[in-house]
Amino acid sequence: MNWLRLTSSQFLLSQRVYWRDLGFALTGALLPLGLSLAYSISRHGDGEIAGYDSGVYLLPGFTGFVLLWIVYNVINSAASRRDKLIYKRLRGTALPDTAILTGEAASGSVTSLLQVVILLVVGTPAIDAPIPHNPLLLLLGILLGAIAFSLLAIGLSGLLPSGEVSTWIVTPVIVAMMMTSGIAMPIGELPGWAQHLAPYLPSSPVVEIVRTAWLGRDFASDPTATGLPAAVGLAGSFRACAQPIGILCAWAGLSFSMGKRFFRWDPRRST
């Protein structure tokens, strides 16, 4: 119970620090949400993708896209607070290391999770999209994605030279994953070499799980397939998503190991 209280305190502190840098905060809060809504709504009625109206197909994919921005939020916050010696001062308090990092990850994730809710509430009626077919699987995919992206960001933050350059490194990576993870187009339409790599990126399993759970069709068993996938029931959607769930768990485990190996509490150059 005491650990939860300390973690909550770290979360609130991280939120205060996050919103003080208004430019960075608004980029992480408004850019992915605005792009996701604008692109999905603008494509509504503009042909079909994989047997669905383009907007309906894209909306679940962009749910995975806003979750991917957890990496942007957490990795930039971690690098910046390390450089400003905030972490060094926090370690001198009663806060355990796990509470500091958990609170930081939760703070970086909450913005994206709220964006997911907005996409569901605003995007669904705006393009006449169906309500999620399997809400439990949808929730599982969202939570697994948030955990994996948070751990990945914490692990990678230790490899960045400074907070000043982290944005310039992370943003192009997010854009590249957007183009290759089935968010905006089926993986089966990518070049041959990319089709072999894309399903194993950390963002692809999230998109496959969310789209399968939302639309009630198997977008997960063979992510490189084109055309309308087979319909699946509630139990069948869980079976179809077994592989992407396993890939996400593997990424979470790998990212946890990277965090233990590479995360640094102090800046590279002491001042």
TrEMBL record:
Signal peptide range: none
Pfam families: ABC2_membrane
Subcellular locations according to the entry: Membrane
Any one GO CC term of the record: membrane
Topology with respect to the bilayer: Multi-pass membrane protein
Keywords associated with the record: Membrane, Transmembrane, Transmembrane helix
GO molecular function, one term: ABC-type transporter activity
Origin: domain of life: Bacteria
Transmembrane domains' residue ranges: 54-75, 136-159, 165-187
Stretches assigned to the ABC-2 type transporter transmembrane domain: 17-212
Major location (coarse): membrane
Name recorded for this polypeptide: ABC transporter permease
Organism: Streptomyces kaniharaensis
